[in-house]
Design brief:
Two copies of one chain form a homodimer.
Chain A (H helix, E strand, L loop, with lengths): L10 H12 L4 E5 L6 H13 L7 H6 L2 E5 L5 H11 L7 E3 L6 H6 L1 H21 L4 E7 L22 H19 L5 E7 L1 E3 L18 H9 L8 E3 L11 E2 L1 E3 H13 L16 E7 L5 E2 H12 L6 E3 L8 E2 L4 H7 L7 H14 L7
Parallel strand pairs in A: 1-2, 3-4, 4-5, 5-10, 6-9, 7-12, 8-13
Antiparallel strand pairs in A: 8-11
Helix pairs in contact in A: 1-2, 1-9, 4-6, 6-7, 8-10, 8-12, 10-12
The structure holds nicotinamide-adenine-dinucleotide (2 copies).
One nicotinamide-adenine-dinucleotide (NAD) binds next to helix 1, helix 6, strand 4 and strand 6 of chain B.
């Protein structure tokens, strides 16, 4: 099979881990738990507490605690309450990760996607602005490149998306960019276009619970290896113009991705130089977060075989509608301007995913 | 000067006139009166009553009355109340005209535009769907063509917009199109891309009140001629690649435009053939509504001189940022499939506008 959908990965909990690791941030998590377990937050906080030095200050200790708010971003009053708690200027910046992200589902219930991803973003920006919180890092996706004309894909590629989900990402980037153009002295924004995140925190404490049959390659392989799914796998097409004919994606470790958010947040600080060479007044930019290395479906299966010791059986079937042959990032801009580098390799991603899955075969609720 | 902003024209009241003229529709108007006077509706209803035949049936008489609802489309409960009044299946279709439309303002307060134009459209579609009202005609704009590569502009031109306002129009078209793709057996939608509407109802009873200095050519000329504005006029650029060097737009009479909505509504009926040759299941299309004839700024000034007898003084100044040299529609698709034709000529537009302005120098509140 190939990877059309976004990987179910709980980017959010890994980003919180990366923020807490620095002990420079106090994290307020805002989630309606549509697709997450509050237990994930308890576990991230546990990791942070465990990592505190013996001589930790009160401030250090506080940075290990998460202010976990249950709020739905489509409800203006619920967002407002979170900001009200901290008052004007009380929140330094927002990392806006919340979204629905199933490509197929978005073609079936597009209005739900436009409401949950786009209208919610407008509310969030309006409310943040009202409380003088004018820094935002936005979770975008490689899906905004549609069928890209050049590989590896630079950020200057024209944006197009094949699904309502992908279109919501383009719309939100557009809205944030327009806001930064309208208020160049107040607002700063960065969109991070994730390529394919994989793996999990090496502790095995946080990751994604495989509920039902996962639609994505990595977790599906994990679920098969762990015995939760039958050992049958469809590889959609081996006649693509790629080295072994199967689809190629750019996988990066979710912890590398998470640390990219930290670099992005730092780049919104007053002293940052990332907007110095901008062509307009607006302090807005978009960056690819990927490794810059394409890996095929067959390469992933082989790497997961090595990591799990499990012999996967697969069958080559016809191409799947909507799949793009190759989505490999050109990651040079993020490296140059943010200092971002996806360091971990495929074997580490497989090992960490396997570690999480064997330790939590039923996810957080085991 | 040239015409970057949308013409302030009260399309809505003219569309209601066109619907009532047929006596086939009972009109429910939904407006928050952000940019309209309730008096306009009283006047339209008056025209409809005056036009009733001597032997008018009770149904005829009812069609001349408007159910005027004050509701804000950004408030879900307010939209819902309107639909609740008529119940499931009680409303046949929606003509969605409401929007903010000032190009310049949209670059200053983009979030307000995204909320009022895009989020409101999502709510409207969700609520309509809930009440089994699944036919929509949407007010789009020639601004979705940005700087078009070919003139006259066919509907197949790639969409791009230079302002947040224009982007809201593209987003709404996208959302409606995705909804029609998702539910091809339920939803039908048509977007009407208006070119430059001008004129007013020949009765002089409905039109736009010139408040402040109008940003658009037609009403500005009217306001100057009526003595409400000083006789100074800036023509932005006479070195464009157009016959006389000034910007060219495609003007059509607002009543022709309004009647286009009637044709579009009829095209959503079960027996309509407009979706027969569609390339997908989705019953969604976009049509240009224009005359297919470009007119320059200088031609408009000359036509208004003839209509008003007033000698306008103008000065040629430099080009204005964001102006596109030529926006002339290719109107053949709407003619072929909807039977639409913008019949009235420039002189009629000028005469009717002048008639409205001399009769209502202060608009509805005189
Ligand atoms: N995972 C990928 O492969 C991938 C790739 C590119 C982009 N992204 C983007 O990254 C982000 C995170 O992805 P993820 O894989 O961690 O998905 P996820 O579903 O695990 O995380 C999204 C979180 O948002 C929450 N949420 C959704 N709607 C909400 C609402 N209205 N109010 C409050 N909370 C809400 C969910 O409960 C969930 O916890 C998403 O924006 C996604 O589109 C993911
Ligand atoms: N006039 C033009 O040149 C032109 C050209 C292309 C497209 N359009 C589009 O045509 C439509 C009508 O234009 P118009 O010139 O008649 O403008 P208009 O301002 O006269 O009409 C818009 C109406 O929508 C109402 N409205 C706005 N926001 C609302 C909300 N949230 N809830 C309820 N009502 C709301 C306003 O009160 C107003 O009556 C708009 O969608 C506009 O973008 C106009």
């Amino acid at each position: 099979m190939s990877a059309q959908d976004e990987q179910p990965l709980k980017v959010c909990s890994h980003v919180i881990f990366a923020l807490q690791e620095t002990r420079r941030y106090k994290v307020i998590s805002v989630d309606n738990h549509h697709n997450s377990s509050p237990k994930a937050l308890e576990r991230v906080a546990q990791i942070a507490r465990d990592n505190l030095p013996a001589n930790a200050s009160e401030k250090d200790k506080d940075s290990a605690e998460i202010d976990a708010q249950t709020a739905d971003l489509t409800k203006r009053d619920e967002i407002k309450k979170v900001f009200e708690k901290y008052g004007k200027g009380g929140i330094w910046g927002v990392i806006h990760i919340a979204a629905y992200k199933a490509v197929g589902e978005s073609t079936e219930i597009p209005l739900t996607y436009y409401e949950n991803n786009v209208s919610a973003t407008v509310y969030l920006l309006q409310t943040a602005s009202e409380f003088d919180c004018t820094r935002i890092v936005y979770s975008s996706s490689a899906t905004v490149y549609g069928t890209p004309p050049t590989i590896p894909i630079p950020e200057t590629t024209r944006l197009e998306a094949h699904s309502p989900y992908g279109k919501t990402k383009i719309m939100c980037e557009t809205i944030i960019s327009d806001l930064c153009s309208a208020e160049p002295k107040r607002w700063r924004g960065l969109s991070l276009r994730y390529f394919n995140p994989g793996g999990a925190h090496p502790s095995g404490l946080i990751g994604e619970a495989p509920i039902g049959r996962p639609g994505n390659l990595f977790p599906l392989l994990g679920a098969i290896a762990v015995g939760a799914q039958p050992n049958t796998l469809k590889v959609f097409g081996n006649d693509y113009p790629t080295p072994d004919g199967t689809c190629v994606r750019d996988y990066l470790h979710v912890l590398d991705l998470a640390r990219g958010h930290l670099l992005a947040l730092d780049a919104l600080a007053p002293e940052s130089k990332v907007f110095d060479n901008a062509t307009s007044d607006a302090r807005y930019k978009a960056y690819n977060l990927g490794k810059g290395k394409g890996l095929s479906v067959l390469q992933i299966i082989e790497a997961m075989r090595k990591a799990t010791g499990f012999e996967f059986k697969y069958e080559i079937v016809g191409r799947r509608r909507g799949d793009v042959p190759d989505l490999t990032a050109d990651p040079t801009l993020a490296e140059k301007e943010l200092g971002f580098k996806a360091k971990e390799d495929l074997d580490t991603m497989c090992r960490d995913l396997w570690n999480w899955q064997t330790k939590n075969p039923k996810g957080y609720d085991a």
